[in-house]
Amino acid sequence: MTEIITFTIPGKPTAKGRPKFVRRGKFVSTYTPEKTLNYENMVKARFWQEYGTDYAPIETAVRVSISATFTRPKGHFGSGRNAWFVKESAPEHMTTKPDLDNIAKAITDALNGLAYRDDSQIAALSAEKHYGPCEQCEVTITANACALKALRESVNSERKG
User: 106: which residues sit within 8 A by CB, 6+ positions away?
Assistant: First the structure.
């Protein structure tokens, strides 16, 4: 049986920040930056809105797909009567920060214990960042033991060949 979870996180996609360290007397403690905590809490809230707080986490291997959409900066558009048109010189793909792997890390960590038991269950991960009309992240999680087994076999055969 295939189980598919899909939901959208509105707002600017945020990368997972590095842990911060603070010295307290003889001890050093770590904490997660507030911006990261806020984004992870928003991911959790959107998941709960879509699937409820009593959703039982998936116990099998999962495939996670993340599509992060950002609005184009004003410099990508023409001026005057061409203000609605993207310049030919504007890049097609987004190659600026935030880093895509850190966006994926923030989302997959936030979903630990909610969508799946642990993020170690993620057998396949695909992610992209691109320009679009509104800032958001679309998340799809697929759990299908047969499909994931076929994926693993194809990856292993590519490594051998």
Answer: 14, 15, 16, 36, 39, 40, 43
CATH code at position 156: 3.30.1330.70
Range of the domain at 7: 3-160
Amino acid at 157: S
What is the overall mean pLDDT for the chain?
91
Report the predicted TM-score, pTM, of the whole model to 2 decimal places. 0.85
3-state secondary structure 78-142: CCHHHCCCECCCCCCCCCCCCCHHHHHHHHHHHCECCCECCHHHEEEEEEEEEECCCCEEEEEEE
Instruction: For residues 76-90, give the mean pLDDT.
Output: 93
List all residues 6 or more positions away from 152 whose beta carbon is below 8 Å from its beta carbon.
123
Question: Into how many domains does the chain fold?
Answer: 1
